Amino acid sequence: MNAQPYLDARRRSDAAQREVLRRTLEEREPLVIVASPPGAGKTYLVESVIAVAVHHLGLRVAVVAPRAEQTYDLMRRLVVNFDPMPITALMSAHRQLPDDLLQTQRILVCNDATALPGVAGVTIATADKLLFAVTKITQSFDLLICDEAYQLTFATLAPLFELAPSALLVGDPGQLPPLITVDTERFETARYRIHWPAPRELLRRFPQLDVVRLPASRRLPQDTVNLVQPAFYRQLPFSSAAAPAERRLQLDAATQGDTIDRALDMLADGATLVGVLLPPAEFGLEHVDDELAETMAAIAARLLARQPRWEGVRQLSAGDIGAIDAHVASGAAVRRSLRLYNVPTDACVVETPELWQGQERPLMVVKHTLSGQRQIDAFGLEPGRWCVMLSRHQIGCVIVGRDGVGDVLAEHRHDCGARPIGSVDAAWEGWRAHQAIWSQLEAQGRLLRIAQG
Amino acid sequence: MSTIFDLAARLLAYQAGRAIPTRRSSALMADPIPAFAIAPIRMVAEQVVYALAYGGPDDKPEIVLTWNPLDRDAGFLEPFAAALDRYLSDCVTAGEMPRVWLAHTAALEVIELLGHRYRTNRSVGPELQRMGAQCRLLAEETTFAGQQIVAVAGSLLAGHVATGQSPSEDLHLGALLAWIDPPAGTAVVDAAAQAALAPAAAMLARAADDRVEQLRARVASGRLREPAARVEAEAIIRAELLREWNLLVQARRAFWTLGLTQGPELTKLSAESFKRVAWQIDRNYGSPARPRSLAQRLDELTYAQELAAYADVADDPIVRATALSAGRVLDATIINRDQPRRGFQPCTLTLETCQQVLRVRAGTQLQLRGARVVGRITEVRELNAGQSVQLTLVITTGVRNPQLPAPGQRTDWMEPEPADLRYQKRQVYERMAASADTRVMGDTLPPARPQPADDDLATIARRLRR
Question: What does the record give under GO molecular function (chain A) (predicted)?
Answer without folding.
Answer: ATP binding
